[in-house]
Amino acid sequence: MNNEALRCLLCKKPKCSLQGCPVHTPIPECMLLYRQGKLDEAGELLIRNNPLTAVTSQVCDWKIFCYGHCVLNVKQIPVRWYEIEQEISRDYLFKYRLERRTEELSGKKVALVGAGPVGLAAAFWLYEAGADVTLFDANERMGGVLRYGIPAFRLDKKYVDAFERMFADAGITFRGGVEVGKELTLDQLSAVYDAVLIGAGAEKPATLRIPGEEKAVQALPFLKDPSAFELGKKVIVIGGGNVAMDACRTARRLGAETWVYYRKTFENMPANPLEVEEAKEDGVQFKVFQAPVEVKEGGVVFRDCENVVPEDGGRVITRIIEGTDHFVECDTLITAISETPDFGLFQGSAAVLGEDGWPILDESQRVRGYPNVWVAGDFCLGPKSVVEAVASARIAVDKMKEGL
Ligand SMILES: Cc1cc2nc3c(=O)[nH]c(=O)nc-3n(C[C@H](O)[C@H](O)[C@H](O)COP(=O)(O)OP(=O)(O)OC[C@H]3O[C@@H](n4cnc5c(N)ncnc54)[C@H](O)[C@@H]3O)c2cc1C
Questions:
Q1: pTM of the full predicted structure?
Q2: Same domain for 222 and 327?
């Protein structure tokens, strides 16, 4: 037994679960079952609450979720619940069989667009509520970012394969290689299915808007199939988020001398600080206060930046220092600035979009213009995290049930 479980105070109002965890994992209940050696019971509680428990316990930024909200944080070291969750969930996932637990949605046909965390979690819950579920994905296999983004050295793909097997055993239909909006329209899905849930992620890369940018490689296609790229000796990755960290660590593992260039300071980096540390341990080198201004053959022109404290004492701003241009050689430039959802699948559909191009939703995450189309995950939140995608899928599925 992991002795961490004995340190848990089994709080009556657990902040770790109620405030810290987006899916409100029943931590004290599971901790108690774990102490009693009832691992399968704990596993069932976890997976039915969050079908991706085996994954989120490995990839969550626990410092901002459960661990960061542990009541022991005040005077002692918080409990590492995620270690216990991993121990329980990683084995239990392979034992779990989907069951029709209720007849609530019996006879209802539901289409899920996207087989990432949203699609996987929703398929799990909807099947168990009796629905006839079909998953569509533009990729050939299930998993979304779990399969095609997060590198295998951080997440073993067997935890994604397990869902393919579980769903196939249950008779859930998966239609891979189908891009909704092209091969099939949203109108067609909405007409044929009782409900449609779109969890199409946020895969459209933001651009640097600098000359020569087309010479750069985008991080997501690179992470999807790193072997398809000839990196050369030296790689520069631009960005400071988790995608940038995965890209630089992958390039490093392919043998390239790898640098991350970022326009602000380390403290400003949106990446999980642990990931930054691990990238450094992998041998990735960092250069901060560097803004790219032009991509040229064989390298990038950067301009120095600095932090300025406004005279009124307001928020520190980072500004570019004119006249500091310098050329840095590299064989491959990878950009990992940010991603946004691709709303192309709404083109020609009845969906009502706002001025910013985002779909207008009601409070149940339903798309205005359709009575039976809901959205969840990165597709409506922008790039977030696996556990937040699952939490958002939970809201959409519950609301969908009320609407069916
Ligand atoms: C490289 C990388 C590393 C990350 N690391 C972490 C991490 O360590 N921890 C963490 O918590 N989060 C991490 N995240 C974020 C996390 O993976 C996402 O928040 C999460 O995957 C969102 O789930 P989703 O189901 O909304 O979308 P996705 O996982 O993006 O899945 C969307 C799916 O929809 C499909 N799709 C898109 N358009 C269509 C269409 N028109 N028709 C059919 N299918 C379509 C796509 O092919 C994809 O399979 C990372 C993200 C990236 C990119």
A1: 0.96
A2: yes
- Domain residues for the domain of 294 are 205-338
196, 237, 385: residue to mutate for ligand 1 pocket, most atoms within 8 A of CB: 385
C-beta of 289 in contact with ligand 1 (< 6 A) = no
Closest by alpha carbon to 384, among 298, 250, 270, 290? 270
For residue 182, the ligand 1 atom closest to its alpha carbon is 41
Q: Is the CB of 205 under 6 A from ligand 1?
A: no
The band of 312, judged by pLDDT with boundaries at 50, 70 and 90, is confident
C-beta 129 within 6 A of ligand 1: no
| Atom from ligand 1 closest to the CA of residue 384 | 19
Residue nearest atom 13 of ligand 1, based on CA coordinates: 385
Same domain, yes or no: 21 and 71: yes
Judgement on whether residues 237 and 333 belong to the same structural domain of the protein: yes
- pLDDT, one tens digit per residue, over 83-110 is 999 999 999 999 999 999 999 999 999 9
Q: Which tokens hold the place of 121? A: 């979690």
Distance CA 343, CA 126 (A): 25
Q: How many angstroms separate the alpha carbon of residue 117 from the centre of ligand 1?
A: 7
Q: Dihedrals φ, ψ of 377, to 5°?
A: 75, -155
Q: Rounded to a whole number, what is the distance in angstroms from the first to the last CA of the chain?
A: 44
| pLDDT above 80 (res 1) | no
The 10 Å Cβ neighbour count of residue 402 is 7
183 shares its domain with 228: no
Which residue minimizes the CA distance to atom 20 of ligand 1?
386
At residue 73 the predicted structure's pLDDT band, cuts being 50, 70 and 90, is: confident
